[in-house]
Amino acid sequence: MAANPAAVMSCGACGPSCRQTLNEGVWTNNPVAVQMLGVCSALAVTSRLENSIVMGMALIFVAAMSNLFVSLLRNATPRRIRMIAEVTIIATFVIVFDQLLKAFYPEMSESLGPYVGLIITNCIIMGRAEAFAMQNPPAISVVDGIANGIGYAAVLILIGAAREVLGSGELLGRTVLSPDWYTGNLVMILAPGAFIALGFLIALANHIKPPQTEASK
Amino acid sequence: MKGDTYTIFYATTLGVVCSLLLAGVSAVCMPYINANREARKGRSILDALGMPVDDKLSARDVLAAFDEHKVAKAEFGGMEIYIYESSGGPLTAVPFQGQGLWGPIKGFIALEPDRTTIRGVTFYEQQETPGLGGEIGTPDFRQRFRGRKIQAGDTSPGIRIIRGGGATGVNEVDAITGATMTCEKVELMINNAIRTILKEGMENGS
Amino acid sequence: METSPLLILFAAIFTNNILLASFLGMCSFLACSQQIETAIGLGAAVTFVMTCTSVINYLIYYGILVEGAPLVAADLTFMSFIVFIAVIAAFVQFVEMFIERFSPKLYYALGIFLPLITVNCAILGASLFMVIRSYTLGQSLGFGFGGGIGWALAIVLMAGLRKKMNYSNVPAPFRGVAIIMVVTGVMAMVFMGFVGMVQIQ
Q1: Where are the domains of chain A?
Q2: Which residue numbers in chain A have pLDDT < 50?
Q3: Which of A195, A204, A208, A214 to mutate to test the interface with C (most CBs of C within 10 A)?
């Protein structure tokens, strides 16, 4: 059984399970680098750091909220329509975020385009809802959602920063590598740059923490 | 216990609750979304007329700027145009739209008081390929229209976007390299608007 | 004077490949590109589903969801994500039942992949792009079909490359997903070379 809800809820003294879940979501079990899930939306918006940050926030929000509600309803949901129910809940929160974005940050909504909507099919969010929220109490599920969201956002931000700096010499719109001596590498801004940046990032992560092989598991 | 009826009940309730939540959020956001859309158009109009507003300005302020500058809306040949009484005479902003390569393109073309010289061109909606067709939104491309005429002499109405550089005529503009189709479509939609301007202009004698 | 559906179809396959340029459909792409046969099967299934759902979603969007549509006057576009994914899920379910009934061999070959298609970003993405770009019915059909074929092309190419990579000496940190990402990046660059092929710009 998962951690004692009471102990977890007194998050002033964040119980060990809470910290462990947080740690797992962000680092040891980082969604993109380790589980290799949900790369789609990741790459498309990372041409600029600002976009990556907003997308990261979207993911944290949707992951946390959908995990919360999937967990709250976990005992009431019939097995047969489990996945449909999860998708519906996820889709609802994605739409909420999308509407709020369109209303209060329209230029960003333009830049992100369809990729906000595509969070619905994001394997990480679906995966966590199915694998974690369906089995665990709400409080810890929210933590897991937030943790995975942060892990994903961190990857997006790293790639976004790399692409923007290498591709246009700017960071958050401010010139970092002066055009006097640095010619922006167009490839980094276009699609291939995203793939390559992600590949190198994963390789870096693997180098720092070699993946568990069958023997050591 | 978790029988079919329960499944249906659950599914319906979930559906209804989610729809209500979304309808609520949508109702709250819709006024802002609409205001943003109007402001987008408004920014474009003001920019074309030569009075660009700060990017950071909120939607409400953009619409207020309209009142401040007393930009009037008028009907003209079935189009909704915008007139600004500047010190030199009335400047008109005429909308144009059409199908671009990847999606609809909308913009405004602003004319000087003589109704033939172009004051500015803006695009406020376009889906063209970034770096190629998408360049139509850049100041560099829009700048090429400034000072051009909407027709050469009395004979050929409309502008021409010339491929490969070498645009010399008063109604000619250099195309964007590598964005031929986008430029063709833009030329088409602007000329549609120009045709209406000229036609109405001649009939009304203004 | 709209862009011809055929042009959109070619673009979706080559110059604006739905996976290599628009990043859609990566999950299944990574998971299922080990065997060429699997890749072909999955690619075909995705193409079929994408084509059909693009058209169905077009009809639903312009028939029901937009403001002033023939069936419901109110602006229901905020429901589009949910409706699209529901249509896709239902359609895949239907296809699964169909395949199971008429070709058990194919059904066993595809196995788990069919439900995977439902959450394939590319399929939902095709519908979303159709809305954003205001495609007509013909264009949606061209885009759905081309997108599917483009995706299938990418995954089959990757399967072939992976087979060859089994014999390469990949540095340890890159083994697994990392090197695949880099290879995909190079493939994307290659596809960028198609830009001059069709007079698309």
Answers
A1: 38-204
A2: 1-14, 214-217
A3: A195
- The secondary structure element, H or E, covering residue B118 is strand B118-125
Residues 148-177 of A with CB under 8 A from C: none
> What one-letter code names the amino acid at C195?
V
Flag whether residue C90 sits within 8 Å of chain A, measured between CB atoms.
no
The per-residue pLDDT for A216 is 38
Under a CB-based contact definition with an 8 Å cutoff, are residues C45 and C114 in contact?
yes
Which pLDDT does position C75 carry in this prediction? 77
Provide the 10 A C-beta neighbour count for residue C180: 24
Q: Kindly state whether C120 is in contact with chain A, defined as any CB-CB distance less than 8 angstroms.
A: yes
User: For C130-159, how does the pLDDT look when each residue is reduced to its tens digit (9 = 90+)?
Assistant: 888 888 899 999 999 999 999 999 999 999
Tokens for A173? 């719109």
Among A80, A89, A92, select the one facing B7 at the smallest CB separation.
A80
Contacts of A100 in chain B (CB under 8 A): 25, 29
Q: φ, ψ for residue A78 (rounded to 5)? A: -65, 140
> Is this complex scored with an ipTM above 0.85?
no
The size of the A-B interface in CB pairs under 8 A is: 53
**Average pLDDT over all residues of chain C:** 84
d(CA B145, CA B120): 6
Amino acid at B202: M
Over residues B94-116, the pLDDT tens digits come to 888 888 877 788 999 888 888 88
Task: Specify the pLDDT at position C21.
Answer: 86
Using CA coordinates, name the residue in chain A closest to C170: A203
* Mean pLDDT confidence for B176-195: 85
Residue A160 to residues C52, C68, C178, Cα–Cα distance (Å): 35, 40, 17
Amino acid at A90: I
For residue C57, pLDDT over 90 is answered with yes
Asked if C188's CB is within 8 angstroms of A122's CB, the reply is no
User: Which chain C positions have a beta carbon within 8 Å of A116's beta carbon?
Assistant: none
Strand B118-125 to A174-175 pairing: unpaired
pTM higher than 0.90 = no
As a residue count, chain A comes to: 217
- Please tell me which of the candidates A85, A91, A99 has its beta carbon nearest to residue B25: A99
